[in-house]
Amino acid sequence: MSFVRKQKYLIDYTLSSLGRRPGKNLGLLLVYTLIVFMLASVMLFTHSLRTEAGLVLQESPEVILQRMVAGRHDLIPADYLDRIGRVRGVSEKYGRLWGYFYDPAVRANYTLMVPRDREIVPGGVVIGAGIARTRGLDEGDFLTFRSSAGEPVSFRVVGLLDHESELVSADLMLVNEATFREFFGIAEDYYTDIVLRVRNPREVRKVAEKLAVKLPDTRPILRDEILRTYDAIFGWRQGIVFVLLGGAILAFVIFAWDKASGLSAEERREIGILKAIGWETADVIRMKFWEGAIVSLAAFFLGYLLAYGHVFYLSAALFEPVLKGWAVLYPEFQPVPFVDGLQVATLFFFTVFPYTVATIVPIWQASITDPDTVMR
Amino acid sequence: MKGEAQWVQDMLRAFSMRKADLFLGSMALGIALLVLSFVDEALRGRAAVPGIERRAELVAALDLTDLALFTEARYTRHLTQADGHTGFQDHPLGLEHFPSGSLYAPPGILSETDELRPQTEIPD
Amino acid sequence: MIHLEQVKKAFNQGRTNEFWAVRGITLELEANRATVLKGPSGSGKTTLLSMIGCLSRPTSGRITLEGRLLSNLPERFMTDVRRSTFGFIFQQFNLIKGLTVLENVMLPAYPLGPDHRALKQAALGLLKQFGLADRADYKAEWLSGGEAQRTAICRAMINQPRILIADEPTANLDTRLVREFMAMVRDLVDMGKTVLLTSHDPMVFDSPQVAAVLEMRDGLLAEA
Question: What is the ipTM of this complex?
Answer without folding.
Answer: 0.86
